[in-house]
Specification:
mainly alpha, Growth Hormone, Chain: A, globular
């Protein structure tokens, strides 16, 4: 049982349970409209610019992830998280009254700032709430809750928009994190991480951290393409496939991440990098067959497996290569790689798709991941110990 064990503190304290509630609320606000906003942009007559909304969201996220710990150091976690939740949720109410591309890009960017604050500050607070003796189990539990939230809400957003319209999606997007703010007063107050501005810069110059981050970023770039353009590429005749594929991909990724953690502890995290990259490339190639529901769903599952493997293995590997004092640096760099990869994928394919079409754009995305094979092979020669981790 989660809370039992001889001479072992329970994982599920009241504070951690409240923190999990907040994680669910913020996950709903981020993932529910993630594939809906590009559809809304396309419906507003800006199909070729749809990727800019996802790109703006994630670019702003990356920029603020690297500075959020400084904000935490000044304001503390409660106030920082409150600001992040408001910025993530409330601006979604502006999509409907301001449907122009510049407005949607600006709204998405503000929401990205909120998400950055929540990811970095919330992750640090969550880690502080987990007992040191059970850190691995606690972080795995948190990762499972976050993963399941994305599995359910990502396809639900498309389904809800198709059934009830965009307005209901944007309303729930705004309400979820605002309601989750009710958990903040009951959470403990912690100081921000010290020395962050120096360790982050050193981390960005450390090849042993940057190589796994780059490998993961190549995979997340394909994920950005998948989330942003697959529903548009399938069109109305196969509209039922999009929410199913966007359910399959994160569902398989969540399961693969859990399995990869167990295998990585036994065989080493570096042994998982090459299979993860290969599966991601193969999955993306299959997704290019947008006229075949079977190929799209198979591709979503295969890509999800590769994504989940790399999600766990790269983060665990990076944690294993720094002392405990460097964990905040790893968190910032890995999360920045996650979101920057998704942003670049969405923006890059957005510029290409009107010229080459969706099938060619998806195949070019798979080709762009090939260099990661060489980095993964190099990493297999680097000794590393395993370490439990979760986003």
């Amino acid at each position: 049982m989660l809370g039992c064990g001889i001479d072992r503190p329970p994982i599920l304290s009241r504070a951690l349970l409240l923190r999990l509630v907040a994680i669910v609320g913020c996950s709903i606000s981020f993932y529910l409209p993630l594939a809906v906003v590009p559809l809304f942009a396309a419906a507003a007559g800006a199909r070729s610019a749809a990727g800019l909304t996802t790109g703006a969201l994630l670019t702003a996220t990356v920029l603020f992830e690297l500075v959020t710990p400084r904000i935490v150091a000044h304001l503390g976690y409660r106030w920082t998280l409150a600001i992040g939740m408001l910025l993530l949720g409330v601006p979604a109410l502006l999509f409907l009254p301001f449907p122009s591309i510049p407005a949607m890009v600006a709204i998405s960017a503000v929401r990205g700032v909120g998400f950055a604050i929540i990811v970095v500050a919330g992750g640090a607070l969550t880690a502080a709430l987990v007992p040191d003796q059970r850190r691995g189990e606690g972080l795995a539990l948190v990762g499972l809750v976050s993963g399941l939230s994305s599995v359910l809400t990502l396809p639900l957003g498309i389904w809800a928009a198709g059934r009830w319209g965009f307005g209901i999606v944007f309303l729930v997007t705004a309400a979820a994190p605002v309601l989750a703010m009710a958990t903040l007063p009951a959470l403990p107050r912690h100081d921000g991480p010290a020395g962050f501005r120096h360790t982050t810069m050193r981390g960005l110059r450390d090849g042993r951290l940057m190589r796994p981050a780059i490998i993961f970023a190549t995979c997340t770039s394909a994920a950005g393409v998948l989330v942003t353009f697959l529903p548009i590429a399938l069109g109305r005749p196969l509209s039922w496939v999009a929410p199913l594929a966007l359910f399959v991909q994160p569902a398989v990724a969540t399961a693969a991440r859990w399995i990869a953690g167990r295998l990585g502890d036994r065989r080493g995290q570096t042994t998982l990098l090459l299979p993860g990259v290969i599966l991601s490339i193969v999955g993306m190639v299959a997704l290019a067959a947008t006229g075949s529901p079977a190929a799209v769903l198979t591709g979503a599952a295969v890509f999800g497996a590769g994504f989940g493997i790399l999600q766990n293995a790269t983060l665990a590997l990076m944690y294993a290569r720094v002392p405990v004092a460097g964990y905040s640096t790893v968190s910032a760099i890995w999360n920045a790689a996650y979101d920057l990869g998704m942003a670049l994928g969405a923006i890059g394919v957005g510029l290409l798709v009107s010229v080459v079409g969706f099938t060619a754009a998806f195949l070019l995305t798979a080709a762009a991941m090939v260099p990661a094979l060489f980095l993964a092979r190099r990493e297999a020669t680097e000794p590393a110990r395993s370490a439990p981790a979760a986003r």
